[in-house]
Every structure is written in structure tokens, then in C-alpha cells.
Design goal:
By secondary structure, the protein is an alpha/beta fold. The chain has two domains: about 105-285, Alpha-Beta Barrel (TIM Barrel), CATH 3.20.20.10; about 295-420, Lyase, Ornithine Decarboxylase, Chain A, domain 1. Helices cover about 30% and strands about 25% of the residues. The strands form three sheets. Strands 4, 14, 15, 16, 17, 18, 19, 20 and 21 form a nine-stranded mixed β-sheet that branches. Strands 5-6-7-8-9-11-12-13 form an eight-stranded parallel β-barrel, surrounded by six helices. The protein has a three-stranded antiparallel β-sheet with strand order 1-2-3. Mean pLDDT is about 95; it is low at about 250-260. Bound molecules: pyridoxal-5'-phosphate. The site of pyridoxal-5'-phosphate has 16 residues, from helix 10. Pyridoxal-5'-phosphate binds near residues 58, 102, 202, 287 and 385.
Length: about 425
């Protein structure tokens, strides 16, 4: 569910009129709903009431300082994948002792910084990394808390690039090999086993794979609990959201994909909670998309229309540099006009494309939409996760601005990048 809706024919985010925001701040513009993020966080926490748990928001989905601040105030922990994300979390008031540090390629300096900050856990993805963390910790006379990321070999995820829990993916340590790593850690020294982790993929829209992966992990988790006294089991993130959702039913709790029963938060919790409760461990969750995906839109203005013999094109001012999901993962985003069209307004099938010089630069292809004219404002829905966070300045296009709406309060939470910033740090060698 989300707090975007038409009110008197104008698309609003909570109490803010999106057209007014676009006039004030320009386009492309990301707009986030604080109420939606908070609501998602609280619902997830409520669905797990009765189980000792900590929600560690996956920062990579949307790392804007205002989003991190909002979640830190809710009591969230954070799942980070780089020194840069650690810096962001601490700067936004997040607590290091609620941060889990994931990722297959942690550098020595990142490990040193995370250790000094006092993260809750290094989520280890290989034996080499375990050795490196041990070495850094011993050099500092410290003990690094760690959890091994186990690969449960379960197929899941909406696209091959976002499936992570199969044995052919680069992530995690083969299930069978995990106990050996805990034994090795004990002999290496400088390491304290605190948990075990898994994460099977992203945009998973059914409960089955989660329950299957947890079930496969249970014997291992029990063994690590007995032999190494671990305190938490992180079941990762990956809960999918509705990308196809009509605004008319925007108030519904509807996380799945159109025409499918869909995965509700309650359904997700109900599928894993009975397996997890008997463990008596703290359960960590690492949702990214689930918390922020449907809490953001990308506003873009129509620049031109163009027709070729084969196609109609609606050319807009946001491109793949602003939102790469359609190009990278064949991501599907609903696109709606900021002015509610009349029920009998003409519709057309068109490609919605950006200004970037790439054929992959599209926001939608062969999409049936209300006919759009130059100057019209469109909202690309469900753009709160992996939207701005994956933006680049390709084609020397400055990064978009970001706005956070909270009820009737509107804050610009990131200024639009200007051209001086675009070239900051670049030098022409003296001659
Ligand atoms: C990306 C990632 C997540 C978040 O995935 P979502 O699909 O956004 O929930 C959680 N944990 C790890 C280890 C990740 O890499």
C-alpha cells in the first residue's frame, strides 16, 4: 500500500500536490512518502510481533539521508554493503551496533572502519574474507563479530540479476561448507560468532521460496546455536512489491503482482514465523524494496512526441540515468499522468523514452497510456527503491532532486546537482 492518490483530479503524495512540487523543484524529481515508509516498517514489525526481531533496512535500496533518519527514528537497524553506506548511516544518526555489514568484496579499510565503528556483525561471504577480518581484528587487538552468509541453494527472484540464493550465484558460502568456516574462525582468532545469515534474492512475490530456504537452514542454524552459541539468524530481504497497482485501489494492502494472489506482509510473516519462533534466536530481516519501493515516484515532464512508421514515442525528461530498472532488469513501472484523465480520455500505445543516447533508454515500452502531450507531467510509480540509488550522471545529466513529503510537510532532501558539481574533482593536466 502507499499514500499516492488522486485528489480532485490531481495526483498527490500524502497532502502534497505533485504538480506543484514539480513546478517548484523542476523535473526529473523523486518524491518520497514518509508516511508510507513508516507504515511499511511498522506493519512488518507488527507482523513479527511475538518473535524477537530487528529490521535492518537494506540501505542500498534508497540511501537518502532523510530516509535513513526516518528509519533510525523508528528504531531500525541497517544492512550496509560498503564503507560509504556506513558513513551515510552514522551521519544520519543510525547506530553502528545495529548495522550488519554485507557484501562479497569488503576491503581492508572498510573492515577497519566498520570494526572501529562497532558494527553488529560482519556478514561473511567467503573464507578469504573471514581470514582478512580475523587479521584486521587481531592487528587492532579486537574481536570482530561475524555471521556467515549461507547459500541455501533456492531459486528465487524476479530476474536473473536479482536471484542470489542459487549455488551458481557469487553470494554466500555453500551450505555444506558453513560449519567448517565457524570452526576455522575459532582457530584463526579475532573473531566472535554472533549469527548466521541468508538472502535468497529480490522481488520475490510468493512465500514458498522464503519458507523453503528457512526450512533448509534450520538444521544448520540449530547446530551453530549449539556449537558456537550464535544469537541471531538473519533471513535477509527480498520481499517483492506490487509494481502493477492501480491507483484506484491504492489503499489496498496489495504487495503481489496483478492477477496473482500476491504476497501480503501477513502471508510472508505467517510462512516463516512458525519455523523461526521455536529457535529462540533474534531474527534479523533485511528488507529494502519492501519498505521504500512503493513509497517513491519519479516525476517527469513530456518534452516531445514522435511517431515512426512502427511506433509512437513519448519523449520525457527523465532517462535511464535517473531510473535504470527498466533497462537493467526489464523492470516494469506503472506510469500515470499527474492530472487524472477523464474516463473517456483517448489512450494510445507508446514507448516512453528518455533523452539519453542509448536504445536501452526507456521507462516503458509498448505501453498503453492516456495520450500525453508535451508539457504534461507523468509519475513513474514504485520508484522509491533502486531508483535514485542507482542513478548516474551518464550523458552529463546532473542527478535529480529528491523531496520527502510527510503529511502536509514537504522537504527538499537533496538539491538538484548543478553543472559545477558534475565536474568537481576533474582536472585538465597543465601544459
Ligand atoms: C540487496 C540486499 C537486501 C535487500 O533486498 P530487497 O530485495 O531490496 O529487500 C538484503 N540483504 C542483502 C544481503 C542484500 O544484498
Amino acid at each position: 500500500m502507499h499514500f499516492f492518490h488522486y485528489r480532485d483530479g490531481r495526483l498527490c503524495c500524502e497532502d502534497a500536490d505533485l504538480a506543484a512540487l514539480a513546478d517548484q523543484h523542476g523535473t526529473p524529481l523523486y518524491v518520497y512518502s514518509a508516511g508510507t515508509i513508516r507504515d511499511h516498517y511498522r506493519r512488518l514489525s507488527t507482523a513479527l510481533a511475538g518473535i524477537d526481531h530487528l529490521i535492518c533496512y537494506a540501505v542500498k535500496a534508497n540511501s537518502n539521508a532523510a530516509v535513513l533518519d526516518l528509519l533510525a527514528r523508528e528504531g531500525a537497524g541497517f544492512d550496509i554493503v560498503s564503507g560509504g553506506e556506513l558513513f551515510r548511516v552514522l551521519r544520519a544518526g543510525g547506530r553502528a551496533d545495529r548495522c550488519t555489514f554485507a557484501g562479497v568484496g569488503k576491503t581492508r579499510s572498510e573492515i577497519e572502519r566498520a570494526l572501529a565503528a562497532g558494527v553488529k556483525s560482519f556478514n561473511v561471504e567467503s573464507e578469504g574474507e573471514l581470514e582478512r577480518i580475523s587479521e584486521v581484528a587481531r592487528a587492532h587487538g579486537a574481536e570482530a563479530p561475524f555471521a556467515v552468509r549461507a547459500n541455501p541453494d533456492v531459486a528465487a527472484g524476479g530476474h536473473k540479476y536479482i536471484s542470489t540464493g542459487k549455488s551458481e550465484n557469487k553470494f554466500g558460502v555453500a551450505h555444506e561448507d558453513v560449519p567448517r568456516l565457524y570452526a576455522r574462525a575459532a582457530s584463526l582468532g579475532g573473531l566472535r560468532p554472533v549469527g548466521v545469515q541468508m538472502h535468497i534474492g529480490s522481488q520475490i512475490t510468493e512465500a514458498g521460496p522464503f519458507a523453503l530456504a528457512v526450512e533448509r537452514m534450520l538444521p544448520l542454524v540449530g547446530r551453530l546455536q549449539r556449537e558456537h552459541g550464535i544469537g541471531f539468524f538473519s533471513i535477509g530481504g527480498g520481499v517483492g512489491i506490487a509494481y502493477h497497482h492501480s491507483l484506484a485501489s491504492g489503499a489496498e494492502e496489495w504487495w503481489g503482482v496483478r492477477d496473482q494472489p500476491g504476497l501480503t506482509l501477513a502471508g510472508y510473516a505467517a510462512s516463516v514465523a512458525p519455523l523461526l519462533r521455536p529457535l529462540g534466536l533474534t531474527i534479523l530481516l533485511e528488507p529494502g524494496r519492501l519498505l521504500v519501493g512503493n513509497a517513491g515516484v519519479l516525476l517527469t515532464r513530456v518534452l516531445y512526441r514522435k511517431e515512426s512508421p512502427a511506433k509512437k514515442f513519448v519523449i520525457v525528461d527523465a532517462g535511464m540515468n535517473d531510473l535504470i530498472r527498466p533497462a537493467l532488469y526489464s523492470g516494469w513501472h506503472e506510469i500515470v499522468p499527474a492530472r487524472q484523465p477523464a474516463a473517456d480520455a483517448p489512450r494510445e500505445t507508446a514507448d516512453v523514452v528518455g533523452p539519453v543516447c542509448e536504445s536501452g533508454d526507456f521507462l516503458a515500452q509498448n505501453r498503453e497510456l492516456p495520450a500525453a502531450a508535451p508539457g504534461d507531467l507523468l509519475a513513474v510509480m514504485s520508484a522509491g527503491a533502486y531508483g535514485f540509488a542507482m542513478a548516474s550522471t551518464y550523458n552529463s545529466r546532473p542527478l535529480a532532486a529528491e523531496v520527502l513529503v510527510d503529511g502536509d510537510r514537504v522537504d527538499l532532501v537533496r538539491e538538484r546537482q548543478d553543472e559545477e558539481e558534475l565536474v568537481r574533482g576533474e582536472r585538465i593536466p597543465p601544459r
